[in-house]
């Protein structure tokens, strides 16, 4: 896709997520990798519901702001994701209700915050590790994400929300939607108990679809 097409796609997908309550006010941020090696990032204090394709923040390959509005303070965590994963073309950070609620729950398995409820969670996300709490924009948060990005497509930030990558921005959004749905199912099922996929079933999915 051209830069112009990616700008339009980012605004369209962000508006779709806003309308479904995945981001409210100025919360959350998304980004994509450009054909020239640079990046587009949502501007600071921008709303997913009203993004202007023409004013999106543009960074060069080194992560320097070169055009558009000032980038989100959390753009550095997006850049660390990209630097560890050349196969990643889009990154989504949301404050979506179910995943944010999950990030505040006690007793989470830090290696994988969600059990394998459905094959689609395993296929699209694999595992969801927990990143310890850092304030938004803290350098330690970006470092923790970079360390996990080498082997994971998504992470859950404690008391904050998810960060999810994909081969392109559309895939990253699809992965984020699947992850939010899985968290909603998990919270719904908690009072009743649940049947999860077996280890053998998960292994078959991992062999077949090669998701980390």
In words, what does this structure look like?
The protein has about 210 residues and is of the alpha+beta class. It has a single domain (about 5-210), classed as 3-Layer(aba) Sandwich (L-fuculose-1-phosphate Aldolase), CATH 3.40.225. Helices cover about 40% and strands about 15% of the residues. The chain has seven helices and eight strands, in the order H-E-E-E-E-H-E-H-H-E-H-E-E-H-H. It has helices spanning about 5-20, 75-85, 95-105, 120-125, 140-150, 170-190, 200-210, and strands at about 30-35, 40, 55-60, 65, 90-95, 130, 155, 160-165. The protein has an eight-stranded mixed β-sheet, with helices on both faces. Strand 3 (about 55-60) and strand 4 form a beta hairpin. Helix 2 (about 75-85) runs parallel beside helix 5 and helix 3 packs across helix 6. The chain is globular, with a radius of gyration of 16 Å. The mean pLDDT is about 95.
């Amino acid at each position: 896709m051209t830069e112009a097409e990616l700008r339009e796609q980012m605004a369209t997908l962000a508006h779709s997520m806003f309308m479904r309550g995945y981001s409210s006010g100025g919360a959350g941020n998304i980004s994509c990798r450009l054909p020239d090696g640079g990046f587009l990032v949502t501007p600071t204090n921008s709303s997913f519901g009203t993004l202007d394709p023409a004013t999106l923040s543009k960074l060069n390959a080194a992560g320097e702001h070169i055009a558009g509005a000032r980038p989100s303070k959390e753009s550095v965590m997006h850049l660390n994701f990209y630097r560890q994963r050349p196969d990643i073309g889009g990154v989504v950070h949301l404050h979506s209700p179910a995943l944010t609620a999950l990030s505040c729950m006690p007793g989470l398995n830090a290696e994988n915050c969600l059990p394998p409820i459905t094959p689609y969670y395993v296929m699209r996300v694999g595992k969801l590790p927990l990143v310890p709490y850092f304030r938004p924009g803290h350098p330690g948060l970006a470092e923790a994400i970079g360390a996990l990005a080498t082997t994971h497509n998504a992470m859950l930030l404690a008391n904050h929300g998810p960060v999810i990558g994909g081969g392109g921005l559309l895939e990253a959004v699809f992965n984020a939607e699947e992850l939010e749905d899985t968290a909603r199912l998990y919270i719904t099922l908690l009072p009743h108990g649940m049947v999860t996929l077996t280890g053998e079933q998960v292994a078959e999915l991992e062999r077949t679809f090669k998701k980390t």
